[in-house]
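Holo prediction. Input below; ligand is GLP.
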Amino acid sequence: MLKSSIDKATGFEKRFENIGTVVYADSTSASKSIAEEIASLIKVKQSQRQPCILGLATGSSPKGLYAELVRLHKEEGLSFKNVISFNLDEYYPMEPDSVNSYVRFMQEQLFNHVDILPENCFVPDGTLPKDKIREYCSDYEAKIEALGGIDLQILGIGGNGHIGFNESGSLQNSKTRLVALDHITRVAASGDFSGLENTPRTAITLGVKKIMEAKRVILMAWGESKSNIIKASVEDTVTSHVPASYLQEHDNATFVLDQAAASKLTRINTPWLVEKIVW
Ligand code: GLP
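Structure of the complex:
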């Protein structure tokens, strides 16, 4: 059913969007604007002599963002010496030097090209014995808490609405844990692993709770293939079926989209539904 509350101040029918969304012409300009926000946060924290705690994501979506952060470091002197980063997730089991490891991804995309201290880069450990994972996950959360929480969390979104590896059905108060991967997620990753049979069935992910506790959350999505799940996350009801929809309940979350990913939002797909109402 269509929502239709009217903003009395402007006369405009309220947007159908329950999360702030910013739409850019393309992912390059969108990634640049996110990099600028991160750079200013890092600098503010530097001026306060404080660490800047970043929650980082993997996947194809943040690659342009990391490239821009590397450029800001190399060409504009942005330092990452006060940055402490926590990655969202890692396949399990996974060796850090494997081609598909998120440790390797982060080193290649960002860490090796900026002056972040290696001891300040945390990525969930895919090499642990199974009986050590629970304790490891609670230590991972304790480290974040001891630093006062995540200042800014970067997210991509899975085709099924997952954030990190919090698949459909993950609870809003879920903790950092070992999870089974959705078949859809494994199929999406199977190209990287040369076939579904080689694709991991499990992963370690930061829980939804720690993501929701981040002071600022930016979710990025590019391309038409994300447009249906973006609409569901932004406009439909909050449901564990689409974990990204939990962000409707975060008071400082923004979805940064390119035009294709935004194309199913009501204001773009059927703009006449959000026209100004004449009284
Ligand atoms: C993986 C990651 C997620 C990421 C998602 C989307 O499942 N664990 O954190 O958001 O992929 O990836 P992409 O950005 O390549 O679409």
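DSSP finds nine helices and ten strands in the chain. That is the main takeaway for now.
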